[in-house]
Amino acid sequence: MAAHPGPEVSWTKCAVPAGGAALFSRAGESRHQVRGFGFRGNPLATLSFFAQLPRLFRLYARLMGDRFVPLWPKLLVVGALVYLISPMDLMPDLLVPVLGQLDDILVLWLAFRTLVRMSPPERVAAHLQTIDRGRQSPR
After folding, report:
1. Which residues are CB-contacts of 100 (< 8 A; sequence separation ≥ 6)?
2. Do residues 124 and 34 make contact, with C-beta atoms less than 8 angstroms apart?
3. Torsional sign, CA 47, 49, 50, 55
């Protein structure tokens, strides 16, 4: 029985900001992902990830304030932040110490990932370029 390779996915390059992550999207779709933020078992990649965290958080803050970003991903992030500070948890932090914090991080990561993926790619690229240049526009 031969394995079916599945549908072919082609990725098109949307933008490469000066200081970092390339943005890619599937041909014909508006979804995209920010590449260059991964561990891949390499200690230097892990350090690079943590060095990029301030840039990522600036991107998230800018997307939350962007009027061209749909409302529901923003509400998802707000819900994840409420879940983070809420005493009610899927896995209580005190009963299951490590897993309790991991579920909080996972919920927050999924919300931020959805915010970036559901934002217009040209807005994400513009914000990343602005962050890399160190200015406060476009809005």
Report:
1. 89, 91, 92, 93, 94
2. yes
3. positive
Structure tokens at 113: 């990932």
The single residue listed with the structure tokens 């299951």 is 96
Please list the residues that pair with 32 across neighbouring strands: 25
Which residue carries 């082609």 as its tokens?
Answer: 10
Alpha helices in the chain (DSSP H): 43-65, 71-85, 97-118, 121-133
CA dist., res. 105 & res. 11, Å (int): 29
User: In angstroms, rounded to a whole number, what is the distance separating the alpha carbons of residues 96 and 66?
Assistant: 37
Report residue 44 as tokens.
């230097």
Strands lying side by side in the sheet with 32-34: 11-15, 23-26, 32-34
Q: Is the pTM of this model over 0.85?
A: no
pLDDT tens-digit readout, 41-98: 677 777 887 888 999 999 999 999 999 999 999 999 999 999 988 878 777 777 777 8
Task: Return the DSSP state at 39.
Answer: -
Q: Are 117 and 109 a contacting pair, CB within 8 Å? A: no
